[in-house]
Structure formats: structure tokens, C-alpha cells
Amino acid sequence: MTNVLNFRAPPLPFYILGGLSDFAPGDRHLSRQGIGVFDLLIVRKGCLFVGEDERRFALTPGSALLLRPDAYHYGYEDCRERTEHYWIHFQTSGEWSAEDGAGTDAPVASPEEGAPRMLHAFDPMPYRLQLPQFATLPQASHMYELLDRLIALNETSYLGITRWQIDAMFQQVLQQLAATIRKQASSPRAACAQQAAMYLRRHYKEDVKAEQLGEQLRFHPIYIARCMQAEFGCSPIEYLLRYRIEQAKLLLLRTDFTIARIAEEVGFHQAAYFTSRFTKYEGLSPRQYRQRFLKE
């Protein structure tokens, strides 16, 4: 079963450096422990024998292997023929985790673990980027062409416009890699979480209960809560609360409604409770939030 690496975005993973290596018969991949960056290997010609901890992979043309920054990597066998492979080093400043083939998450890195998740004006909604650790590329020639263009930009990477091109091109590489699993659409857990999020967004003005959500989705409320925690990093109730506050922020900036009316418009029965929740997440009251963006 294929392992999957999950990246919480934003921020998106970013490119560091890449290249094309040419191994002669008798060469093998270096042994390294905890290099601190992700290492994407894609073979164009020959066969590369690479291991990560207890797992071993024989990479043939069109095969891709994503090595973790915290694991032990090694070549377990010499190349038997001339072997060409691309290597791409990249990193993320966000959270990431490893998921085994059975769908079990194993959290690995969480730079802001324990820190409050403050909502600010126009914050983007987080999502999960999933990349397979091992994959066979269905259109390998397209990936080779993309990687050749990406690596060619290394020489002028000190230019700002080139860095922008590199970042855009690297995201295309990740998109092609992610497309090999289509896990977002096929995972029952992800589908459940997305259905729950859609329902909560459509009914955020209503008094939604966990039991009601379970009845609508035909799943047990505990299962729904676990799915949303894995997919969005929060419970259904917290997701609903965050969404209500986001809608309240829009009304604060776009209308002259009173605080009490805005509270009612976004599903809060009491203005005082709305103000306390808003203040907890934003660090300032709804009135202060509105005043901060008003013209003097």
C-alpha cells in the first residue's frame, strides 16, 4: 500500500534546488540520515535502488519517490546500467504528516503546535495537499519536460522574476505528482469531512447540532468529528464557529448593521456570546475590528 505525505496549506511547499544526475553501472544512491529537506526522485532512464528506513524501492523510468526529511535514505544496490534521475529538494514551513496505506495519520511536524489559531481579516481557508511517497507517473514525458525547464532556471534563480517562475513551475510538479493518487476524491474520510463542511456552510445561520449533522450525512457524529479533525484540524462545532465569524467580519466591513444584528445574521442567539467568541479569535471586539478598517 502506498504511503501518503499530507501538507497543510497554506503555506505551500517551496522549491530549494534540483538537478539531473547520471549514474554509471556500479554507482548507487548516497546514504544519508535526516537531511532536513524533502527529496523527490524521478527516474528517466535505467533503474535506481533506494531505501528509506526499512522500505526499499526499485525506481524505473517514470517512477517517482518522495523521501522524508527525517528518515534514513540509502542505496541498497548498485546501478546495473546507466541511470538518469531527477532530484528536487523542497521544504515547507507549515505542518505535515505521514499517512500509511491503511489511512492512519502519524503527525510528524507542527511548527505552531499549541499556538492559538487566530483568525484575521480575509484569512484563507486551510486545506490538505496530499502527495504519494511512491508513484508511477501516467505522463512521464510531460514531467521530464517540466523538470528540465525548472532546473534550467537554477542559473538565474537570484532574480526575483525567476524565483516567481520557479515557484509557479514547482507547483505544477506537485500537481502532477498529486494527480497520481486522487485521494481527495476517493477517501471516505475526506468525502465525509467535505460533506459536513458543505452542510455547515449552507446552514450556518441555523442552530446546527451534532445529532442533526449526523442525521443529514447518515454518519455517526463521532465519526464526522474525527473526519473533520483529520481533514480541517478542528471539530464540526469549531468549524461552524470559525465560518460564522468569517461571515461576521464581512458584514462588519460591508454594512452598517449593529453588532446585535450581525450576531443574529450569522447564527448567534446572543450578541454578548458573539462578542466574546469574536474577541477570543480576533484579539479585539467586533466594534474595534470595524473601527480598525474604517477611514478616519
From TrEMBL:
Keyword 4Fe-4S on entry: no
Gene Ontology molecular functions: DNA-binding transcription factor activity; sequence-specific DNA binding
Listed Pfam families: AraC_binding, HTH_18
Residue span, HTH araC/xylS-type domain: 194-292
InterPro entries in the record: AraC-bd, Homeodomain-like_sf, HTH-like, HTH_AraC, HTH_AraC-typ_CS, Tscrpt_reg_AraC-type_HTH
Signal sequence region: none
Keywords for the protein's UniProt record, in alphabetical order: DNA-binding, Transcription, Transcription regulation
PROSITE patterns linked: HTH_ARAC_FAMILY_1, HTH_ARAC_FAMILY_2
UniProt name for this protein: AraC-like protein
Lineage: Bacteria, Bacillati, Bacillota, Bacilli, Bacillales
